[in-house]
Amino acid sequence: MQLPPQPSRLAMVPFVSVEHMMKLVNRIGPAEVIAGIADTIEYDYRRWPEFDKTPRVPSHSKEGVIELMPTSDGVTYGFKYVNGHPANMARGYQTVTAFGLLARVDTGYPILLSEMTILTALRTAAMSVVAARHLAPENAKTMAVIGNGAQCEFQCLGFHKVIGIDIVRLYDIDPAATEKAARNLAQSGLTVVSCKTPEEAVTGADIITTCTADKQLATILTDNMVGAGQHINAIGGDCPGKTEIHRDILMRSDIFVEYPPQTRIEGEIQQLAPDHPVTELWQVIAGEKQGRASDRQTTLFDSVGFATEDFSALRYVHAQLKPHEFQDLDMIADPDDPRDLFGMLKRAAPVV
Ligand code: NAD
């Protein structure tokens, strides 16, 4: 892999603020950005063995979790700081917020610092469509989305653009969330159906996306709601003690995961025996294992979000940046004489 371009002054770090990220995404188009990140994720999944991998490092509290997600491909290092606080919404805050960084491995100097709250929603949709490319039934046209919060529209746009979904059937326990999503998707080219129950939402769906937020072992999908041949894109169960899918569905599905050591702790499969068979998605993408094998098969992507996906999303942003979409941040102390850090501080002291 090539080294990323160097900023004009080594110690200056390009910083992508929330405002910059919105400029970049609106210039390219949200659906196109999701498709672009999906291609970058797929490229990086194909070279999976090159990456340092570790389950993310969590700090749990009764309200939620704060996590660090590091990885490196030997040339570039990256990490994301992310939280998950389901009770935040009632306080008027986001459930998930994030920022992240890329650095050169050869010098250790950062090359990008970026907001990642918007970027996480884009990359989560991108990862969902990467999985669906290999697992969804052929010619899937209808998707149910249960949980119509911050992630919902990104998922819908990604599936429309990359998978060819034309109809989304939305359900949320809070009808205001469904109304918001339907409003935001009005010009998207999707037919949006607002549903009154989760059972109504899954009727006729080829794909079911669950993206609810509740720190408990919830049952968003019960066994009778899932038929043969459907693909489940389960993104909301991503933390110990936080799941969405009934165990009976897991027992009769073929389950695909990002990084098993992390998913066994955080994903839907925390409900199953530690040796329950799962397939690693990178092997499907690399052509080593089969994805969907028949139109009767129930496939389940047990998404939790893995560090390499954030790395790929940051790489995509870094490659797309235009000059007005970042500012140089003076965040690395870099004296002309590398040993004279104190002298630099002294010379900057006000003269009295
Ligand atoms: P959010 O708080 O904005 O939205 C969650 C929505 O779920 C809310 O509208 C809420 O009313 C609804 N909801 C809660 N319980 C429900 C139920 N029983 N039935 C139907 N709807 C219900 O959260 P968000 O940012 O959209 O994130 C959704 C979930 O996805 C969170 O759990 C988050 O941790 C997870 N997430 C996962 C990934 C990943 O990579 N897998 C990435 C980002 C977020």
Structure commentary:
32% of the residues lie in helices and 24% in strands. It has 352 residues and is of the alpha/beta class. The chain folds into 2 domains: 12-118 and 308-347, ornithine cyclodeaminase, domain 1, CATH 3.30.1780.10; 136-306, Rossmann fold (3-Layer(aba) Sandwich). The chain has an 8-stranded parallel beta sheet with strand order 9-8-7-10-12-16-14-15. Strands 2-3-4-5-6-1-17 form a 7-stranded mixed beta sheet. The protein is globular. The model has no long low-confidence stretch (mean pLDDT 95). Bound molecules: nicotinamide-adenine-dinucleotide.
Main features:
352 residues, alpha/beta, ornithine cyclodeaminase, domain 1, Rossmann fold, 2 domains, eight-stranded parallel β-sheet, seven-stranded mixed β-sheet, 24% strand, binds nicotinamide-adenine-dinucleotide
Structural shape? globular
Instruction: Quickly give the CATH architecture of the largest domain.
Output: 3-Layer(aba) Sandwich
CATH C-level label of the largest domain: Alpha Beta
What is the total domain count?
Answer: 2
Placed side by side, the strands forming the largest sheet appear as 9-8-7-10-12-16-14-15
CATH level-four homologous superfamily name of the largest domain: NAD(P)-binding Rossmann-like Domain
Instruction: List each distinct ligand once.
Output: nicotinamide-adenine-dinucleotide
Averaged pLDDT: 95
Indicate the CATH topology of the largest domain.
Answer: Rossmann fold
Which consecutive residue ranges, at least 5 long each, have pLDDT under 50? none
Number of helices: 11
Alpha-beta content class = alpha/beta
Q: What is the radius of gyration computed over CA atoms, rounded to a whole number of angstroms? A: 21 Å
**What string, H for helix and E for strand, traces the elements in order?**
EHHEEEEEHEHEHEHEEEEHEHEHEHEH
How many strands? 17
Q: How far do the termini sit from each other? A: 52 Å
- Largest beta sheet, briefly? 8 strands, parallel
How much of the residues is beta strand, in percent? 15-25%
